[in-house]
Amino acid sequence: MAAAADGLLREGYGTFRLLCLSLCTEAPSIGDFLRINEGCILGRNQLGSFYDETVEQCKGRCGNDYSCRSFDYVHTYRSCHLSTDNRITARAAFDSCPSWLRLQTDYYEKVTELLSVNYFPGVHLLHSPTHHTAAHHHQENHDNMAASNPHHHQITATG
């Protein structure tokens, strides 16, 4: 089934506007990290905090620890905060990240399963030519989400 040039799918009983996720050929692999700019899961650093670290060192720490599911990286302090949670298991902590902290922090989540629409609730996946691409939404869906969601984040996949 192919969509018409107008972005509509006409099939059997009706016409549907295509606003669904479009999977790309360069989806992140198991073990890659999804970066969410200006995000954090506040107070969930069960695996420790490390200072004077680079993002790459922090990725290495989390990547080498089976129980690590995500980390926050605070740029101003070059600090790495490892967690056994992710934004799905600690949704309230992710949603309540204060703005003063969000501005200096990026959230990284280890890819541990196949990507699905349910794996990315309330976020928009953007194509980034310098990173692997997980997926992207139709522009109309992006505009609607940005207008209705104060916690709208940009996600890119990094290896």
Textual characterization of the structure:
The chain has helices at 55-63, 91-95, 99-102, 139-148; strands spanning 8-11, 14-17, 22-23, 33-36, 49-50, 70-74, 79-83, 105-110, 124-125, 135-136, 154-158. With 159 residues, it is an alpha+beta fold. The chain has one domain (22-158): Hepatocyte Growth Factor, CATH 3.50.4. A hairpin with a 2-residue loop joins strand 1 and strand 2 (14-17). It is globular and about 30 Å long.
* Number of separate domains: 1
CATH architectural label: 3-Layer(bba) Sandwich
First-residue to last-residue Cα separation: 33 Å
Q: Could you name the CATH homologous superfamily?
A: Hepatocyte Growth Factor
Number of strands: 11
Kindly state the percentage of residues in helix. 10-25%
CATH class: Alpha Beta
Large-scale geometry: globular
Query: How many H/I helical runs?
Result: 4
Short structural description:
The protein has 159 residues and is of the alpha+beta class. The chain is 18% helix and 26% strand.
SSE map:
Layout: E1 8-11, E2 14-17, E3 22-23, E4 33-36, E5 49-50, H1 55-63, E6 70-74, E7 79-83, H2 91-95, H3 99-102, E8 105-110, E9 124-125, E10 135-136, H4 139-148, E11 154-158
Parallel strand pairs: 9-11
Antiparallel strand pairs: 1-2, 3-10, 4-8, 4-11, 5-7, 6-7, 6-8
Observed structural traits:
Hepatocyte Growth Factor, 159 residues, two-stranded antiparallel ribbon, globular, alpha+beta, 7-stranded mixed beta sheet
